[in-house]
Design goal:
Structural class: alpha+beta
Protein name: Beta sliding clamp
Keywords: Cytoplasm, DNA replication, DNA-binding, DNA-directed DNA polymerase, Nucleotidyltransferase, Transferase
Radius of gyration: 25 Å
Helix content: 10-25%
Strand content: 35-45%
Strand order of the largest sheet: 5-1-7-8-9-6-2-3-4-18-17-16-10-14
CATH architecture of the largest domain: Roll
Organism: Actinospica acidithermotolerans
Shape: elongated
Subunit structure: Forms a ring-shaped head-to-tail homodimer around DNA.
Family: Belongs to the beta sliding clamp family.
CATH superfamily of the largest domain: DNA Polymerase III, subunit A, domain 2
Largest sheet: 14 strands, antiparallel
Distance between the termini: 75 Å
């Protein structure tokens, strides 16, 4: 095998593909990147039986071939190379890498022991890359971190015609985001439960292109029976779906609210951060609403205490709500709106955060962040 490729293109492709490599591979070959040169392109692949990644980039190929080399080492080398064309060539069981005056010799791994990458599923539709990444980030904050309950660590992807809905929950909060997309089939109806961490990393890494394509291997399965594939700008990745039945989340949202308050988002975030400085682990921040204002408080008894009052558009009977400050801050940060509308029923039932472009504008229901309040004592 012998080929030449541009340094910047190589470094970016290797770095992206190497992100999917396992930190503790179950087999040595799974720590490698597979380099296949043929025609006028180089394909770099990685796979750990759960997630596969594949990058295609232009290359001047003199001799076609395939080699397997250490992914981490190649990523480190590619990042450090001077800005000159990079030449690869095989020399028996080794690979020679030359870039300007820099020379490296890499040991190869047995290609025949490397597992075959899964095929890319059939395309289901496409969506703007930035929109998809932002939507995934908004819901991923609510996904669970407890691997003993795998179905709570995922993002539920629901496709219904030209509507794509993303949902995640850890049982203490729940995030839902709806966006429009371009389906391949007008009446497509499909569901997939995707690992939240993996989906977030993939979506964030594919914002360089204009659109991303989503593909599902088994559109009739609730979860666990197929793959989801995501492709953009010469990069392709697949990941296995999670098993388990997702919760019936629609019934969790209150059918109607008894009141709501509108507050400037950035000011509320800063106030929560300040007041939460005195909050002990697992203790809440209290929001007490009255006409035209909200008072934030934390700390009780002989402990350190903090309070802050700020403007709020509020009408109705006075009420106090208490929330985990971390959950509240993550929801506020995910809104990406100048103003926050907090809608509630009672102090013990779920509250819902939505965004507003202005204090006197309607709220945007496309993104909803539901958070369970903490019951106040005393």
């Amino acid at each position: 095998m012998k080929f030449r490729v541009e340094r910047d293109v190589l470094a970016e492709a290797v770095a992206w593909t190497a992100k999917s490599l396992p930190a503790r591979p179950p087999a040595p070959v799974l720590a490698g990147l597979l380099l296949s040169a043929i025609g006028e392109e180089l394909v770099i692949s990685g796979f750990d039986y759960e997630v596969s990644s594949r990058s295609q980039l232009p290359a001047q190929v003199e001799e076609a071939g395939t080699v397997l080399v250490s992914g981490k080492l190649l990523a480190d080398i590619a990042r450090a190379l001077p800005n000159r064309p990079v030449e690869f060539s095989t020399d028996g069981p080794k690979v020679q890498l030359v870039c300007g005056s820099s020379r490296f010799t890499l040991q190869t791994m047995p290609v025949e022991e490397y597992p075959a990458l899964p095929d890319m599923p059939k395309a289901a539709g496409s969506i703007a890359a930035g929109t998809f990444a932002a939507a995934v980030a908004q819901v991923a904050v609510a996904a669970g971190k407890d691997d003993t309950l795998p179905f709570l660590t995922g993002v539920r992807v629901e496709i219904n015609g030209d509507t794509l809905r993303l949902v995640a929950t850890d049982r203490y909060r729940l995030a839902v985001r709806e966006i429009l997309w371009k389906p391949e089939i007008a009446d497509l109806d499909a569901v997939a439960l995707v690992p939240a961490k993996t989906l977030h990393e993939i979506a964030r890494s594919l914002t360089g292109g204009e659109f991303v394509t989503l593909a599902l291997a088994d559109t009739e399965a609730e979860a666990g029976q197929g793959l989801i594939g995501i492709e953009a700008s010469g990069k392709r990745t697949t990941t296995r779906l999670l098993e388990g039945e997702f919760i019936k989340y629609n019934s969790i949202f209150p059918a109607e609210f008894t009141g709501d308050a509108v507050i400037e988002t950035s000011a509320l975030i800063e106030a929560v951060k300040r007041v939460a400085l005195v909050a002990e682990r697992n203790t809440p921040v209290r929001l007490s609403f009255s006409t035209g204002q909200v008072t934030l408080e934390a700390g009780t008894g002989d402990e350190a205490r903090a309070s802050e009052t700020m403007d709020a558009v509020f009408e109705g009977e006075d009420i106090s709500l208490a929330f985990n400050p971390g959950y509240l801050l993550e929801g506020l940060g995910a809104l990406e709106a100048p103003y926050t509308q907090l809608s509630y029923t009672t102090s013990t039932k779920p509250a819902v955060l939505t965004g507003r472009p202005a204090a006197d504008a309607d709220h945007d229901p496309a993104y909803r962040y539901l958070v369970m309040p903490i019951r106040l004592t005393g």
